[in-house]
Amino acid sequence: MMKRRTLSLLAIGLAGSLGVPSAMAQTKWDLASAYPITNFHTENLQQFAKDVDAATSGKLKITVHANASLFKANEIKRAVQGGQAPAGEILLPNFENENPIFGADGIPFLATSYADSKRLYDAQKPVLEKLLNAQGLRLLYTVAWPPQGIYAKKELASVADLRGIKWRAYSPATAKIAELIGAQPVTIQAAELSQAMATGVVESMMTSGSTGYDSKLYESIKYFYDTQAWLPKNAVIVSKKAFDALDKPAQDGLLKAAAEAEARGWKVSAEKNDWYKKALTEKGMKILPPSPKLVADMRQVGDIMLADWLKKAGPDGEAIVAAYRKSAPAK
């Protein structure tokens, strides 16, 4: 009996020296996401989970729960804060009512390209990290969505054509746009969008080519105006408590995989932007440039919203916009 016990202890010691994780050393995290399994953000999350597994030698296993299967989009942040899930992916502008800083990338026509959006993120990041830190959260990485355009069931010459229309509002910014253009805001999350369009609950919205394709908007909408109004970001967050419970090598492995996911995600988003527009065209949707009048009207909306946001965001908001504008390349 003593001999067998000695052998089993030797086996455990050998496994440890070979780097084989014991069951006790392994940590399992659920990561809540709101988007379909085929969406590029979710595909990036799945790759991130694989990279974390490899970088931590199997010590940290992340299971991605896509398509709002664990929590709805607007519930994910609170779930991570409250310890119901260690990690989650959120759309930052969705939480602007909680703190204006979350809405920096939801202001129309402030940052309208990937390069501009990245500069805005660089200006926003220190303030964002401090804010999340105070809420018991840690930012792992962000990825921008493709630029936002206007989907409509009819042709649009100006903002006047949107008055009274049933408009999808998925964030405070998109609800504010509805108010300023005289549309009727209807709150619909991405997972329910396809059905809402098919049943006429929603007639128009601003969102990306990605969401338009994923939600099969081409089945009920024929026009997409490529306004390139803003590029909202998804952020992958983790509870500080869960992060702090990891040992240093696991933390380092997680952060390395996060940095790789951020670089990969931004690159894929830019590549996918053109692919989505081509795919929507092939499905019968008309991808059109907005008329000069529509652009001028929407820029006016953007100016009002920027002034409003700066008032609410105070010195932090002013610092973000000043740093962003200062970093603009010389013309």
TrEMBL record:
<keyword id="KW-0732">Signal</keyword>
<dbReference type="Pfam" id="PF03480">
    <property type="entry name" value="DctP"/>
</dbReference>
<protein>
    <submittedName>
        <fullName>TRAP-type C4-dicarboxylate transport system substrate-binding protein</fullName>
    </submittedName>
</protein>
<dbReference type="InterPro" id="IPR038404">
    <property type="entry name" value="TRAP_DctP_sf"/>
</dbReference>
<feature type="signal peptide">
    <location>
        <begin position="1"/>
        <end position="25"/>
    </location>
</feature>
<dbReference type="InterPro" id="IPR018389">
    <property type="entry name" value="DctP_fam"/>
</dbReference>
